[in-house]
Amino acid sequence: MPYNDTPLSSRGPFLMPAEWERHEATWIGWPHNNDDWPGKFAAIPWVYAEIVRKIAPGERLRILINDQKHESRAGRILKKAGIDSARVDFLQIPTDRGWTRDFGPIFARNDGEKTIVDFKFNAWARYSNWRKDNDVPDQAALSTGHKIFKAEHNHKHIVMEGGAIDVNGRGTLITTEECLLDPEIQTRNPGLGRKDYETVFKEWLGITNTIWLGKGISGDDTHGHVDDLCRFVNTDTIVVVDERNSNDANYYSLQENRERLQDARLEEGQKPAIAELPMPDPLYFEGHRLPASYANFYISNSAVLVPTFNDANDRTALGILSELISDRPVIGIHAVDLVWGFGTLHCLTQQEPYTCKADTGTI
Q: Which residue in 101, 141, 177, 348 has the fewest CB atoms around it within 10 Å?
């Protein structure tokens, strides 16, 4: 499907809705790559089924599958999990891996329409298998009939993943310097600086205000994605993970991020409200520190899904988020197996907004 090539000067403004605004659907890629969860893959489809089961009452699931055989396997598992097949659309769009937050279609509003903004995907500048994933937004536009725009700056297709940003739907975005600006590991868009990114955010996502944090959490193989670190829960409230153990690898970087947030401002100049989420105890598998974080929650229409880790802080994190997000239940999803893939619930999902009009969260 060809990109919409309307000149920038002739387009209306783009705006990316917040995650808590009403969804038409959640996009998720059904797992198939054993290398993402070596030694644990057998358990992963059942975790996916539980995710689908909790989301399906409130919205459709658009599930990416590689072929008919892949769809049949997914369908059998969903049926055994008691999921209504009428709530699921299988889309034959092949993927390399399952991290749909990062390569899936990013939806924005433009000129009264819901459109797809296509950022290039290069597997976090880390892995060689990314070309099928990079093609997903274009295939999604073909499947849904939505317009698609290539996110460009200075005639270059901008590389960026959905997990690198979080928005409040009113013009403020949070990201990290480690992910987008670190001169040693920033191999997504060589030469792009802070002002360049802020221009990209403004032109393609409607962002007038960017909050820059420092580093992401230890164990994250994406170079500092913000969705393991810090999230909006409403237009003016931010939750940030906090580590109290001064001997932990995350301690100093998380302290710095919290200090930055205390000085941050929202799009109209007001200070955001800041709430802290605990971190679980460090989680390791085969000697690898895993990016276990309660900040990797997903806000669907029917529930807020929060990763849990058989940890004493599971209940605390669920309680904090229940107080902050009171219009839908907050539900824990066991993620000890899932996080072996270096991501959990938010990393796997991508929301499609329900309408092109602003929505404050009514379901």
A: 177
Residue 273 phi, psi dihedral angles, 5° rounding:
-75, 135
| Count of beta carbons in the 10 Å neighbourhood of residue 282 | 15
Strand 88-92 with 298-299, pairing: unpaired
Q: d(Cα 275, Cα 268) in Å, to the nearest integer?
A: 20
Within 8 A by CB and 6+ apart from 181, the residues are 193, 194, 197, 212
| Cβ neighbours around 277 below 10 Å, total | 22
pLDDT at 240: 98
Query: How far is residue 28's CA from residue 101's CA, in Å, rounded to a whole number?
Result: 8
Give the up-direction half-sphere exposure of residue 66: CA atoms within 13 A in the CB hemisphere. Answer: 13
- Measure CA 174 to chain center: 12
Candidates 252, 258, 251, 250; CA nearest to 275 is 258
Dihedral angle over CA of 103, 108, 111, 115, nearest 10: 30
H or E element that contains 50: helix 44-55
Give the pLDDT band (50/70/90) at residue 126. confident
Give the whole-angstrom CA distance, residue 165 versus residue 336. 24
Rg (CA), the chain: 19
Query: Is the confidence at residue 76, as pLDDT, over 60?
Result: yes
Q: What is the DSSP letter of 7?
A: -
CB atoms within 10 A of CB 2: 8
Rounded to 5 degrees, φ, ψ at 162 are -60, -30
Question: Would the pTM of this model clear 0.90, i.e. be above it?
Answer: yes
Q: What is the mean pLDDT of residues 18-33?
A: 97
The C-alpha torsion from 310 through 301 and 72 to 337, rounded to 10°, is -10
List domains and CATH numbers for the chain: 12-351 (3.75.10.10)
Tokens read off for 139: 């295939």
